[in-house]
UniProtKB/TrEMBL annotation:
Its main location: cytoplasm. This is Ribosomal protein uS12 methylthiotransferase RimO. Keywords: 4Fe-4S, Cytoplasm, Iron, Iron-sulfur, Metal-binding, Ribonucleoprotein, Ribosomal protein, S-adenosyl-L-methionine, Transferase. GO terms for biological process: tRNA modification.
């Protein structure tokens, strides 16, 4: 069993497909870095390649070429992407680069001039063209069959469901809109049809993702799509309601706290959608938020959180924050700690600010010294850890629904409704687990808690 944080790298996915290559079949490998949105892009690329007769290799050396889907959000992520490209070049030699860092081709070719091609994020056709040039397809229509659900890079029982691309915000620390463009939402019926097929194929949990999930459909003016003999609106509330009727867990990620988010809470209270909101608050001090070019309404946010909890007491709130943002004073940071005390968020992540090439925040005055960033990061995480521990200890004795992720000789690794895969905690069962299978959903009584994880027994 693996404890939180996992000892696997969720940003370094390998294709979870059987190695059933026929003789002479062209074969492609894939390395997928970055966020779940990039993972969905990788799945779409691999699905198209499988449909064209390519086999998918689980390692570098068994492939005729390797695609590296990169991340370019932070300078540290760029460095990791360059490292992954270099590793693929050493292990295989024939490398095609795509993804967010692909928006800066000169940056990539300057470090690795031997790459075969560089394409930007979600440029599927360009990636396929590069693959065709490097490794010509050779499909056999009588042998090369593709499952209806395509190629998955996640375990069979859960799947990411991307509902839009891009973002309309102009946060000064972020270059995602420059790399991925403005908001472009998928039609509601297309999202629901994909979700329905996933559930029919055995997916038990749908993880809804985008850069700004609560803005879904805004660019489409919340148009209507035909669905199930009626119509469904391209709006996150309507979409979530329809997804909840498919019979799987539905978990919402990257939800910006617009006022209409309150309309999702009744769906959680009814059990249609998991009582879980992943909201990137980023900070709490109004001056820091203004410098970030984000809404400066931390006090109103506390009121919203209180209203959400009044409607749905079991709601889990997860968020991420940035410490050491340019100009952040000790008083501003203390405001963030005090706000966290009041908000009592269940799951919290924290990043130390770092410059990103092209971000407007680079030009802000009064950058914070690295040692101060580190000290604030440690103080923040100490408080967040104490809150998490208290929250989890309060669950001891309760009976919760959990989903099984993994079973080995020691026990079963599960997650509660409050836990997203790879980023939140786990619940472990170390007795009476032998008959469990990944994807099983069952009731468990919590017996023990740590800072981030739980242990329990089957009911």
């Amino acid at each position: 069993m693996t404890q939180n944080p996992p000892n696997l790298r969720p940003d370094l996915a390998r294709a979870a497909v059987p190695d059933t290559r026929r003789a002479g079949q062209p074969t492609i490998g894939m390395v997928s870095l970055g966020c779940p949105k990039a993972l969905v892009d990788s799945e779409r690329i691999l699905t198209r390649l499988r449909a064209e007769g390519y086999a998918i290799s689980p390692d570098y050396r068994g492939a005729d070429a390797v695609i590296v889907n990169t991340c370019g959000f932070l300078d540290s992520a760029k460095a990791e992407s360059l490292e992954a490209i270099g590793e693929a070049l050493v292990e295989n030699g024939r490398v095609i680069v795509t993804g967010c860092l692909g928006a800066e081709p000169d940056y990539i070719t300057g470090a690795h001039p031997r790459v075969l091609a560089v394409t930007g994020p979600h440029q599927y056709e360009s990636v396929l063209d590069a693959v065709h040039k490097a490794v010509p397809p050779s499909p056999d229509p009588f042998i090369d069959l593709l499952p209806a659900t395509g190629v998955s890079l996640t375990p069979r029982h859960y799947s990411y469901l991307k509902i839009s691309e891009g973002c309309n915000h102009a946060c000064k620390f972020c270059i995602i809109p420059d790399m991925r463009g403005k908001l472009v939402s998928r039609p509601a019926h297309a999202v629901l049809r994909e979700a329905e097929k996933l559930v029919e194929a055995g997916v038990r949990e749908l993880l809804v993702i985008s850069q700004d999930t609560s803005a879904y459909g805004l660019d489409r003016r919340h148009d209507l799509s035909p669905w199930k003999g009626g119509e469904v609106r391209a709006h996150i509330t309507d979409l979530a309601r329809e997804l909840g009727r498919l019979g799987a867990w539905v978990r919402l990620h990257y939800v910006y706290p617009y006022p209409h988010v309150r309309d999702l809470i009744p769906l959680m209270a009814e059990g249609l959608v998991l009582p879980y909101l992943d909201i990137p608050f980023q900070h709490a001090h109004p001056d820091t938020l203004r410098r970030m070019a984000r809404p400066a309404a931390a006090a109103k946010t506390l009121d919203e959180i209180a209203a959400w909890r009044a409607q749905c007491p079991d709601i889990t709130l997860r968020s991420t924050f940035i410490v050491g943002y340019p100009g952040e004073t000790e008083a501003e940071f203390q405001t963030l700690l005090d706000w966290l005390d009041e908000a009592q968020l269940d799951r919290v992540g924290c990043f130390k600010y770092e410059n990103v090439a092209g971000a407007r925040s680079n030009a802000l005055p009064d950058h914070v010294a690295e040692e101060v960033k580190q000290e604030r990061f440690e103080r923040f995480m100490e408080k967040a850890q104490a809150i998490s521990q208290a929250k989890l200890e309060a669950k001891v004795g309760r009976t919760l629904q959990v989903i099984v992720d993994e079973v080995d000789g020691e026990g079963a690794t599960c997650r509660t409704m409050a836990d997203a895969p790879e980023i939140d905690g786990n619940l472990f069962i170390d007795e009476d687990f032998e008959t469990l299978m990944p994807g099983d959903i069952l009731a468990v009584t919590v017996e023990e808690a740590s800072d981030y994880d739980l242990w329990g027994r089957r009911v």
